[in-house]
Write the structure tokens for this entry.
Amino acid sequence: MYAAKSIARSMLGQVRRPIAERNFKRAMATHQGPLRICAGAGKQPLEGWFNTDVSWHAQNYLNLLKPWRTPPGAVTHIYMDNVIEHFTLHTARKVLANAYDALAPGGAIRLATPDVERAARLYLENGDFVDQALARNRRAGYDVHYPVDLLRIMFAEADHHLGFLWDEYSLSAELVQAGFEDVQRYAAGESDDAGFKGLESRTGPEEVMTTLVLEARKH
């Protein structure tokens, strides 16, 4: 069943991608004023943002590995929630470089991704939190038996094993290497920038505890 759905989505993506690419190009050609881009919006588009994705159902297709072709100086905010971990370290560097180039001076990026360090610490402590997280995973339909499933589900499911696994040190270093400054960590949903407040959809205690959220700016 899963294989059939995957094939169907791939076929739909091939049909819809040219349309979604044209949608993006047309929108960028006519856009005026500040622009906030959500990359990897999935099925939960953000109100007030220009939402993009690479999935079959995307209305606006944006390949993060290529230059964005946005209006010069228009992009003030970039948001990626559970996106960067789907890229290898090499390709993630391309993603960050393209995002940096797309941002206007003074613009900011916010990244949310699973946190290896936090998850590992919680697993080793094996407290009540782990039981709560595992119970949530069971309700979501995952096959859960042992505390180690907390790590397995976080880093092996959803194709996360194909990308790079992040902690605060590594992601901060890569943001700086890409040219960003003022790297700061925030709790899910919190920010000193009004444009970034309340964006994360995963707000359960177990998700907040294991999510890494970083913001950085282009000067």
About this structure: Helices lie at 2-30, 89-102, 116-125, 128-139, 149-156, 168-177, 205-209. The domain at 2-113+163-217 is CATH 3.40.50.150 (Rossmann fold). Confidence is low (pLDDT under 50) at residues 1-9.
